[in-house]
Design brief:
By secondary structure, the chain is α+β, with helices and mostly antiparallel strands. The chain is about 45% helix and about 15% strand. The strands form 2 sheets. A 5-stranded mixed sheet has the order 5-4-3-6-7. A two-stranded antiparallel ribbon has the order 1-2. The longest helix is centred in the middle third of the chain and has 22 residues.
Length: about 280
């Protein structure tokens, strides 16, 4: 089994992971739609991964620790290349530059990240591993191919990342003018793992500057049963691979896995099941 660091590097350099040789990306149509990101083409997906790797490589290279510094980096980014071949080359360069920065920094070193509870190189390393893995799934679906399974340790960690970083960060971003109310609890259990209790709430309100109405679900892990007492409950279970894809909003990939079949089972109070499905449908910014 690969060590985590080896797996991490393989995922970033070639998000497709292990498996039989495949045609190079430029043999596919850049204009091909991405089923899991319907507003994107294959070229859009490649550009997204490129600019993400460029941005986080720059965050580490410049020792960025404050949001104002990160915003300046984002504003100074080079524009998207017009030619697809140039985009392919730039993606390779961006990934190599990011890996060089990971080599140059220890996990515990401070670094800016968009979730205040996580402000070290470690969370950037983890985020980029999982983002590259999930976008590999997007690319395979766009190419009409079967989805390569995710390594068990990466799938476990990917689910954990959603539970501990992606969903809680959205709670942190709720505006001051909004109201928030708990609506359900979901216990999420991966095979051979311990249940994780997720409190689902909804935030709502009218944005003062333009009168726009908002009503959206958010989730965060809780350990205090008093916080969830009396709320409708759902139980979510499945293999780590299935739960990882599901939590990242790629549940449709479960119907296209290579050499296996997986599913996520959600049972319980109808109201809780509906709120859990709404949270998944909300996606990740």
């Amino acid at each position: 089994m690969l060590r985590w660091e080896d797996e991490h590097r393989c995922r970033l350099r070639d998000p497709r992971g292990s498996g039989p040789p495949r045609r190079r990306p430029h043999h596919h149509r850049p204009e091909q739609k991405v089923p899991t990101c319907p507003d994107w083409t294959a070229a859009d997906l490649l550009w997204h991964l490129t600019e993400v790797h460029e941005f986080w490589g720059a965050v580490l290279a410049h020792g960025v620790t404050r949001e104002e510094e990160a915003e300046k980096l984002e504003e100074s980014a080079a524009p998207r290349p017009e030619r697809f071949e140039e985009l392919l080359a730039r993606r390779v360069a961006a990934t190599e530059a990011l890996l060089e920065q990971f080599d140059a920094h220890e996990d515990e070193e401070p670094a800016w990240f968009w979730y205040s509870a996580e402000q070290t190189v470690s969370v950037i390393r983890r985020m980029q591993t999982h983002e590259a893995t999930i976008h590999r799934v997007d690319a395979e679906l766009a190419a009409g191919r079967r989805v390569t399974p995710i390594a068990p340790q990466v799938a476990h960690a990917g689910l954990d990342h959603v539970l501990r970083v992606m969903w809680p960060a959205a709670v942190e971003w709720i505006p001051e003018w909004a109201e928030i109310a708990p609506v359900a609890v979901a216990e999420i259990t991966a095979e051979a793992g311990q249940p994780r209790r997720l409190l689902i709430s909804r935030w709502s309100g009218t944005r003062p500057r333009d009168g726009r109405e908002f009503d959206a679900p958010v989730g965060r892990l809780v350990t205090d049963e008093d916080e969830t007492d009396g709320l409708p409950r759902a139980d979510v279970s499945g293999a780590p691979l299935a739960l990882d894809l599901w939590a990242w909003g790629r549940g449709q990939a479960l119907d296209h896995l290579s050499g296996r079949s997986e599913k996520v089972e959600i049972v319980g109070d109808q109201a809780a099941v509906a709120q859990m499905e709404a949270l998944i449908a909300e996606g990740h910014d």
